[in-house]
From TrEMBL, chain A:
GO cellular component: plasma membrane
Localization: Cell membrane
SUPFAM superfamilies, per database record: P-loop containing nucleoside triphosphate hydrolases (SSF52540)
Record InterPro entries: AAA+_ATPase, ABC_carbohydrate_import_ATPase, ABC_transporter-like_ATP-bd, ABC_transporter-like_CS, P-loop_NTPase
Protein keywords: ATP-binding, Cell membrane, Membrane, Nucleotide-binding, Repeat, Sugar transport, Translocase, Transport
Name under which the protein is recorded: ABC transporter domain-containing protein
TM annotation in the entry: none
Keyword flag ATP-binding: yes
GO molecular function, one term: ATP binding
PROSITE patterns tied to this protein: ABC_TRANSPORTER_1 (PS00211), ABC_TRANSPORTER_2 (PS50893)
TrEMBL record, chain B:
CDD domains: TM_PBP1_transp_AraH_like
Chain segments annotated as transmembrane: 17-37, 49-66, 96-120, 126-151, 163-184, 215-233, 254-282, 294-312
Gene Ontology terms for molecular function: transmembrane transporter activity
Superkingdom of origin: Bacteria
GO cellular component terms, A-Z: plasma membrane
Annotated membrane topology: Multi-pass membrane protein
Full protein name: Branched-chain amino acid ABC transporter permease protein
Organism: [Ruminococcus] torques CAG:61
Keyword terms, alphabetized: Cell membrane, Membrane, Transmembrane, Transmembrane helix
Subcellular location(s) per record: Cell membrane
């Protein structure tokens, strides 16, 4: 088989920080080679070296028969190396065809040839089996469709190597199937795919080989069929995580939150559920099922159009996050960079942001009190920071999430809603977050967990309610909580119909 | 230990870089032109910088939330001219009430800006652009375009007197800057102003009434514009609808040179004051040296770009 890529003894350091130490990686034509490792293991640095965004310090590299490293991503793309980023950056007000041909417009003199671009785009889209009109604006597409357009764009450059960085982190189960079909098709055409992901089941389904990095070092490359998930976790973490989900020991008490007939037009309809003290309630559903929207409404960030909320048996009106905070509700949001943190501010500023008015006297913020409170909570969460003045934007995903948790826990909430609590967080930090969730439940807090990772949802929850397109399709407890049952309900079959 | 102290010195110099730029500028100019470095002239510079400084405080607040207020200069003209008209028409009116008219009009304009931005959803640029045009038109209509003269001694004293040898304009500047600095750095409100500029969604989900915070900064900026409007009319001893044209740009320039981010979330009042001083020093020294005032514009523009360039580089290095 033809070797598309060979990287040997790659070293890279930033200042005194050695990010890559003698790392090797290769790729054959028609192969899916997964690259895995915890956050900070050096995966993205390695890929950035390949794409010409960083320069390697030492080591040898040979791509598509050339020993010259690329000096910028544009050059890499034109040579046939394309990267599908985790966060897609389309130009929303341009059409699909214009996005595909961005930077290499088909032109007639100084004018772009719209017709020709659309015709050719259609060809690439057909190749991927996507039913999309090239003249549609990117704005109107779903995340998965945008991703497909990115792949079509890679095809339009005749890419031989495609790097996919966590391609399934924002798309639904059904769309993942579609993506995998396309990956298989690309393989057959002799394209090599570098696949970066945290999700075990995917790796075993789609990859041919897996390379593991840990702390900037190469651990191993092995055929996927010779591996099992435990091998990978062990290799990534460097130790064995036998029980990643802590055993549930919390005592379930009286009802603390009751939501009755909650509705919001176009988002969710007539949702009823209860949450008890010390209980961990999971909310399952596909993307767009209304899970986040429902919780945003319970938290007062969106208006509840119909329905009632009772807290501790008393009906309450929650019209803003401020009201919710007063009722001792906390919402650990899905996208912590966008909704959870002020990335330009310090650890302390973020940690005290919910409680700062209670730390003040006559409107003046008492810095000493704030610092002390922040310091205590940040260290209790075992957060790795250089100090309270460190800018939050420079922290890793796991540590950012701990700052978000600190911010909420300082307010001593009774009800804590976790929306995708471990998205983009490495295995080690995940286990820590799970432990914190369990500890909170043991203290009698009511916990709600939304997660798209089913093992996580099943591992953490004592009870799961499932939503499908805004409607509650069922509730699962104990042994009923299996991936199959959740999927059946999440894709719209009600329990009654199934029986 | 030695390395650490060296680092902290570097950190200090970086943080106060713009102050050092000003000091170096003063030193160079003192060598070139001996009449520059005289107590009287230096006090004069502060006096010249004071009106820009006062509105600069308001502008800094607005910029930190990620907004902008283009109406500052026009609101100055509106407030100053209307206060002057009232003072001339009602000779017996106590001066405090005259000031209240000016400040009240400024606050009203700020309130309208704030409601437009926070509750209706106009982009700050558009809302305050509209207000800039409207507030410029009203005093011109009201006075029919003719300046108002014959102001009372009391009115003219506001900006042209001295208290214990210190020009009253400088006192206005110092009080405004201190108040602004304390609000931003010591109060919960100040922290929320930064939080809104840093990440509005996150602030709202942390229980901050982001709309009220934004409303406050525009009203605050309006009030300071009202005060500045009275100061400028008092200083030139007339009310005039064409006064203070382009002052919003002076305030924005001062803030930007002083390290206030146009995207919100960072900056402070003290930096802005240094920025205002640098702008005035250039103007003052060029006047002393007899350089054509057209050159001043060119130099001012270069200084703004240079200051932001250094700021950008500093940020890139951190990452």
């Amino acid at each position: 088989m033809e070797k598309l890529l060979e990287m040997k003894e790659i070293c890279k350091s930033f200042g005194t920080n050695n990010v890559l130490k003698n790392v090797q990686f290769d790729l054959f034509a028609g192969e899916v080679h997964a690259l895995i490792g915890e956050n900070g293991a050096g995966k993205s640095t390695l890929m950035k070296i390949l794409m010409g965004m960083y320069k390697k310090d030492s080591g040898s590299l040979s791509v598509l028969g050339s020993d010259e490293a690329y000096t910028n991503p544009d050059q890499a793309l034109k040579a046939g190396v394309a990267m599908i980023h985790q966060e897609l950056n389309p130009i929303p007000d341009m059409s699909v065809a214009e996005n595909i041909f961005l930077g290499k417009e088909k032109r007639k003199w100084i004018f772009t040839s719209k017709k020709e671009q659309e015709k050719e785009s259609k060809r690439y889209l057909d190749m991927l089996g996507i039913d999309l009109e090239p003249s549609v604006l990117m704005r109107e597409l779903s995340v998965s469709e945008m991703q497909m357009v990115e792949i079509a764009k890679a095809l339009s450059y005749g890419a031989r190597i495609i790097i996919m960085d966590e391609p399934t982190s924002a798309i639904t189960e059904a769309e993942v199937e579609k993506l995998f079909q396309n990956i298989k098709m690309l393989k057959e055409q002799g394209t090599g795919i570098i696949y970066i992901s945290h999700k075990m089941d995917e790796l075993f389904e789609i990859s041919d080989r897996i390379t593991v990095l840990r702390d900037g070092q190469y651990v191993f490359s092995k055929k996927t069929k010779d591996l099992c998930p435990n091998d990978l976790i062990k290799a990534m973490v460097g130790r064995e995580i036998t029980e990643i989900y802590p055993e549930s020991k919390s005592k379930i008490g009286e009802v603390i939150l009751k939501v009755k007939h909650a509705s919001r037009k176009g988002e969710f309809k007539k949702i009823d559920f209860e949450l008890r003290k010390g209980e961990k309630l999971g909310i399952a559903g596909l993307m767009g099922a209304g899970r986040t929207e429902l919780m945003m409404a319970v938290f007062g960030a969106a208006k509840l159009e119909e329905g009632e909320i009772e807290i501790g048996g008393v009906p309450v009106r929650i019209q803003s996050p401020k009201d919710a905070i007063r009722q001792k509700i906390a919402l650990v949001t899905e996208d912590r960079k966008r909704y959870g943190l002020n990335l330009t501010a310090s650890v302390e500023d973020n940690a005290v942001s919910v409680i700062e008015s209670s730390l003040s006297k006559f409107g003046f913020y008492r810095r000493k009190l704030g610092r002390k409170a922040a310091e205590e909570m940040i260290s209790r969460m075992n957060t790795k920071v250089t100090g309270m003045d460190q800018i939050v934007g420079s922290l890793s995903g796991g540590n950012m999430q701990k700052v978000v948790l600190s911010k909420w826990l300082l307010n001593d909430p009774d009800i804590i809603i976790f929306d995708e609590p471990t998205r983009g967080i490495d295995v080690g930090a995940k286990a820590e977050i799970y432990k914190i969730i369990e500890e909170l439940a043991c203290k009698g807090k009511g916990i709600i967990i939304i997660s798209s990772e089913m093992p996580e949802l099943i591992g953490l929850s004592q009870r799961i309610i499932v939503l499908h397109e805004g409607e509650q399709t069922g509730e699962l407890r104990g042994k009923e909580m299996t991936q199959e049952n959740i999927m059946t309900l999440a894709s719209g079959y009600r329990k009654e119909e199934k029986e | 230990m030695k390395v650490l102290s060296k680092n902290s010195v570097m950190e200090f110099v970086k943080k106060t870089a713009i102050l050092w730029v000003m000091i170096i500028l003063i030193l160079i100019l003192s060598v070139i032109s001996p009449s520059f470095f005289r107590g009287q002239n230096l006090l004069n510079i502060i006096k010249q910088a004071s009106i820009t400084g006062v509105i600069g405080v308001g502008m800094t607040f607005v910029l930190i939330t990620g907004g902008i207020d283009l109406s500052v200069g026009s609101v100055m003209a509106l407030s100053g001219t209307m206060a002057a008209s009232v003072a001339v028409a009602e000779k017996n009116m106590p001066i405090a009430l005259v000031i209240l008219v000016g400040v009240g009009l400024g606050a009203l304009c700020g309130l309208i800006n704030g409601i437009g931005v926070s509750y209706i959803g106009f982009p700050p640029f558009i809302m305050t652009l509209g207000m800039m045009t409207i507030a410029r038109g009203i005093p011109l209509v009201f006075t029919n375009g003719t300046p108002i003269f014959g102001l009372s001694e009391e009115f003219n004293m506001i900006a042209n007197s001295r208290v214990l040898g210190v020009p009253s304009l400088v006192i206005f500047l110092v009080i405004t800057v201190l108040a602004g600095h304390i609000i931003l750095s010591k109060t919960v409100l100040g922290r929320r102003i930064y939080a809104v500029g840093g990440n509005e969604d996150a602030a709202r989900l942390s229980g901050v009434s982001t709309a009220k915070v934004k409303l406050f900064v525009y009203v605050f900026c309006g009030i300071l514009s009202g005060i500045a409007g009275i100061l400028i009319c008092s200083r030139i001893t007339s009310g005039n609808g064409t006064v203070a044209e382009g002052y919003e740009m002076n305030a924005i320039s001062a803030a930007v040179i002083g390290g206030v981010s146009m995207t919100g979330g960072s900056g402070n009042v003290l930096g802005m004051v240094v920025g205002a001083m640098i702008l005035t020093i250039i103007q003052n020294s060029f006047d002393i040296m007899g350089v054509n005032s057209f050159y001043q514009n060119i130099i001012k523009g270069i200084i703004i770009l240079l200051a932001v360039f250094l700021d950008l580089r500093g940020k890139k290095k951190k990452n």
